[in-house]
Amino acid sequence: MTTITSNNTKTWGVPPTEQYEKIAFRFRPIFQQIREKTEERENNRELLFEVISWLKKEKFGAVRLPVEKGGLGASNVDLAELLTELAAADSNVTQALRAHFAFTEMVLHADPSPVRDVWLQRIANGDIVGNAWTETGAAKVGGFETRVKKTKDGFRLFGTKYYSTGTIYADWILVLAADEEDNHVFAVVDKNGEGVEVIDDWNGFGQILTGTGTTHFSNTPLEQGKVLDKSFEAKFLAGYFQLVHLATLSGIARAALHDVAREVANRTRNYSHSTATSSKEDAQVLQVVGRVHSLAYAVGAITEKAAKSIQAAGEARFQGNAEKEQDVNDQAEIEISAAQAIISRLAPEAATLIFDALGASATSIDKRLDRHWRNARTVASHNPLIYKERIVGDYVVNQTPPPYIWFTGEKVKGEHKN
User: Fold this and answer.
1) Is the pTM of this model over 0.85?
2) What range(s) does the Acyl-CoA oxidase/dehydrogenase middle domain occupy (predicted)?
3) Quick one: 271 and 338 in the same domain?
4) Could you read off the pLDDT of 89-113 as tens digits, one per residue?
């Protein structure tokens, strides 16, 4: 049987930065270990607790921290490629860590403070942060029923959140809520603390192991009795969250290529009307595999380009020029949205084409080759594509600034928000 390695770096282009290979070398054995049982976890709905523990042990969540703070000094361009490699092993894992890396970025760009120092140390120690942002209740767009209230025992949190991706695997939860004056606030709570219940009730047809479930807060004490100050609210958070989705889709496309190449290389049966004696010598089949690879390559290249825009937005935070920072952030949001518009089509196409190369036998449940399309379609459905394309068009034609945080909820009649 021919073995196809899950990470053939020679076919994905030169590394994104000079330091990338040194960083990636540390984690590739874990990525390969994750890849070995991806189908088994999928078949058994086996959550990622063990997988996340492997990554925590190697301090994967700290890669963005400066070396002097206990990290590896990876840029966001490095991180995007690293998350792509991880998603090629199991796309659920990359998505499950999405909120953690966004929170890490918030900490890195916050003003110096004792609270910031605490979080830098926790991240350096391997702690993982999940999220509880989205609601599906009766709150209107931009509003939250989840509340931070001041009680005799300090600040407490009350409410229910949905789509809490990765939170079931986390040590801490970043919550977006409203205070008693209806202001939006970020609060951080202990995932295993008082009044916290995290439920694995995600029923989507893809990304089924991301822990995207419901989180309840009932009189839950806040970390250090306070919410995070405004300096933690990095302007490019919306684009940053989406960048992780792009890396996830890039990894899914690579995983589809890995599996179709392996199946074609090992296929012994063939069709009577084939032009070759074996599938791996059939020019038409090889053309399909080549197209899958080309699609995966294009997705990776676009993701890397988008990551550079996020890196620039982060660097602009410290340049002391508010007007330039705003302009760079606007450009990053538009680049990320434009990238999503294309990648969200290319990755599912790559996942679909593998069946043209393999035929009906590829639909076997045991092979789980359908997971690539299901996963890609699920990730691509986040943050609706049609709105992103409109935002890009409105910026290009009318120079309308993009929105920086996306909300869901009940739309008030006559209300319009870009």
Assistant:
1) yes
2) 132-219
3) yes
4) 999 999 999 999 999 999 999 999 9
